[in-house]
Write a structure and sequence with these properties.
This protein is α+β, with helices and mostly antiparallel strands. It is about 30% helix and about 35% strand. The chain is globular. It starts with 5 loop residues before the first strand and ends with a strand.
Length: about 80
């Protein structure tokens, strides 16, 4: 069992597309569910921090691994 409910792969997409995909996916999720986002855009680190604050969806973690940025966000 994965430790998240939905996953989007935004690899190869530049700002603002990873955020837009995450926003669209979060709309269809239940409160408390976890969304995993994979991005290759280095700017997405700051983007997802800001997006989390603006939307009150907690950014549980962010990490860089092999040129990919992995975020876990909880639907509020």
């Amino acid at each position: 069992m994965a430790d998240y409910d939905r996953e989007i792969d935004a690899s190869g997409l530049n700002c603002p597309l990873p955020i837009l995909r995450a926003r669209k996916t979060l709309v269809d999720m239940e409160r408390g569910q976890i969304l995993k986002i994979v991005s290759t855009d280095a700017g997405s680190v700051k983007d997802f921090e800001a997006f989390s604050k603006q939307t009150n969806n907690p950014l549980l973690s962010s990490a860089e691994k092999g040129g990919k940025f992995i975020f876990f966000m909880q639907k509020s």
